[in-house]
């Protein structure tokens, strides 16, 4: 295995493991604000107790996110030195702002929210919760702005030695790729948090423990989940898809398994891309649907991979195709599951319908799978570019770090992260087992 492949696997592993935690905390921050708002508006202590329970889950995930996030910053220098040297003057802006502004805002007010409730009044405690939410979503923005620049670089010029120089700070932050990617990502975090909250609530109802809190968690999770799953598809998913169609057309063709340019291109629901023969095997298609979804015209032309030089194709088309279809398939399943649960909730029957409660409880891991598949789609779709149109992936790797060096550290990270995963699961399961009443007592 060559050094480039190991470096890519190394970063893929660390970033995938890390993002298991922020995707919950960013969405959960919003739902905690909702619970605190309900407590403030109704005067019902029940909602304060619910918020205290969830902030403990938040704090565990936040701590694990910090521990696993810091090594990624160092990996830019250790594994991707040439990329850092060339683009550090650009991406360093957003990464520094994420640490200095949003991380410290979130962590400082998380401390006030967790430990300062008795010293702060109800309104000040609500405001602390809001600033935790603001910090977490601001953090997400700066990270997405960094990735968006790599997907569609703007506001730069090339220096005399090939270095990439920032010419417009606002061009970096207001990159047209940022808007839909950011909204799609943050709504995805709300989807994850909604399913987690509804799942834990369903668990309490099924086991007949903490049933008042179980009903609250299921109700809030289902309502938030219904809204967020719909927003994931439209307008955020649609907007992000149009970004790809207009700015990365080879990526769109690979995602859809479209090898030949077509007027009235079909949408592939199932199939297996055969890259050697330039075809999609065993396809299940919706005729002309891709043209309509992309350009709002049934007969619009969609470029296939045949329009582009093979050296511009994503370098692992089957993985890109399947990760995209896993994301879309699960997203569609989420809409159906939440719609069914919302209808039952509206009829006042959800809390007693054990099959639906089992469904909600067992759905817990699937938003994590869908989000991971979505990020694989985004990052594999950018290939063979590290910075789209500017720097190919092999050009950004550290030249003096061998495959053996990288494998050694990768194995070390795998061992440490296994321990962290066990510790995190133990702490979260202990909080769930003790329940909201224990969180309120403490």
Distance between the termini: 52 Å
Placed side by side, the strands forming the largest sheet appear as 1-2
Return the average pLDDT rounded to an integer: 93
Q: What is the oligomer described by this structure?
A: single chain
Q: In angstroms, what is the radius of gyration?
A: 23 Å
Q: What level of helicity do the residues show? A: over 70%
The tally of strands reads: 8
Task: Give the biggest beta sheet.
Answer: 2 strands, antiparallel
Characterise the protein shown here.
By secondary structure, the protein is mostly helical. It has a domain at 230-396. Helix content is 73%, strand content 7%. It is built from 14 helices and 8 strands. The protein has helices at 3-19, 22-42, 45-78, 81-115, 122-151, 169-173, 176-207, 211-247, 249-256, 289-295, 317-346, 354-362, 366-382, 403-441, and strands at residues 156-158, 164-166, 262-263, 267-274, 279-286, 301-302, 385-387, 391-392. The strands form 4 sheets. The chain has a two-stranded antiparallel ribbon with strand order 1-2. Strand 7 (385-387) and strand 8 form a beta hairpin. It is globular, with a radius of gyration of 23 Å.
């Amino acid at each position: 295995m060559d050094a480039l492949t190991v470096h890519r696997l190394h970063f893929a592993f660390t970033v995938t493991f890390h993002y298991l935690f922020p995707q919950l905390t960013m969405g959960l921050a919003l739902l905690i604000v909702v619970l605190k708002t309900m407590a403030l508006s109704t005067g019902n202590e029940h909602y304060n107790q619910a918020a205290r329970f969830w902030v403990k889950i938040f704090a565990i995930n936040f701590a694990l996110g910090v521990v696993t996030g810091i090594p990624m910053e160092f990996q830019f220098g250790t594994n991707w030195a040439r990329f850092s040297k060339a683009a550090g003057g650009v991406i360093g802006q957003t990464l520094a702002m994420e640490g200095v502004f949003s991380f410290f805002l979130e962590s400082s007010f998380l401390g006030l929210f967790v430990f300062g409730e008795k010293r702060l009044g109800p309104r000040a405690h609500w405001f602390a919760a809001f600033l935790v939410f603001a910090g977490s979503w601001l953090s997400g923005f700066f990270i997405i702005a960094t990735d968006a620049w790599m997907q569609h670089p703007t506001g730069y010029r090339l220096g005399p030695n090939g270095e990439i120089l920032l010419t417009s700070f606002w061009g970096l932050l207001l990159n047209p790729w940022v808007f839909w990617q950011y909204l799609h990502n943050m709504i995805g975090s709300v989807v994850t948090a909604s399913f987690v909250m509804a799942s834990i609530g369903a668990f309490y109802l099924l086991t007949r423990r903490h049933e008042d809190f179980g009903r609250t968690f299921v109700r809030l999770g289902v309502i938030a989940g219904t809204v967020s799953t719909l927003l994931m598809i439209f307008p955020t998913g649609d907007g992000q898809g149009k970004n790809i169609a207009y700015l990365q057309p080879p990526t769109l063709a690979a995602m859809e398994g479209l090898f030949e340019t077509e007027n009235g291109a079909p949408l592939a629901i199932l199939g297996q891309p055969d890259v050697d023969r330039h075809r999609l095997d065993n396809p299940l298609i919706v005729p002309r649907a891709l043209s309509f979804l992309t350009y709002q015209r049934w007969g619009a032309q969609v470029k296939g991979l045949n329009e582009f030089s093979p050296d511009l194709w994503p370098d692992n088309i089957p993985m890109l195709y399947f990760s995209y279809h896993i994301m879309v398939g699960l997203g569609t399943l989420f809409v159906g599951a939440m719609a069914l649960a919302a209808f039952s909730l509206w009829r006042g029957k959800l809390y007693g319908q054990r099959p639906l409660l089992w469904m909600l409880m067992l759905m817990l891991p699937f938003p994590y799978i869908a989000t991971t598949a979505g990020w694989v789609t985004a990052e594999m779709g950018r290939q063979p570019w590290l910075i789209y149109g500017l720097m190919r992936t092999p050009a950004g790797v550290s030249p003096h770090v061998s495959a053996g060096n990288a494998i050694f550290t990768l194995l070390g990270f795998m061992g440490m992260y296994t321990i962290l995963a066990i510790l995190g699961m133990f702490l979260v399961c202990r909080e769930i087992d003790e329940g909201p009443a224990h969180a309120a007592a403490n």
